[in-house]
Fold Hemerythrin.
Amino acid sequence: MTIFEALRKDHDIQRDLLARLVETHGDSDERDNLYQQVRAELHYHAAAEERALYIPMMSIDLTQEKARHSVAEHHEIDELLELLDETDYSATHWLTHAKQLQDLVTHHLDEEEQEVFPIGRPGPAR
């Protein structure tokens, strides 16, 4: 499995967890469990992605801008996670923030798969 295949697999997991998370209600065990899974998945994935993909891409002029943009989006995701951490699960705006997180992450994943991965892999774009 290539790094790009592994990252796409993680992306599918993230999309699924977020879709399930925004369907939860109130201060429930289901919401807590899914949120903790989303949080952990996003944290570990971003750390690995930055080390294995974005740091090397930043040293190449052709890929530097895309890599920096993607890392900046990781920080935006972290900020939304911090906001969710500070918000009670039963608050009406918790779900609003969770949907914003879903939109941001989905945008980020789509952009990575369509724009970053083709220029990040060696050889001809696939």
In short: Residues 29-58 form the longest helix (30 residues).
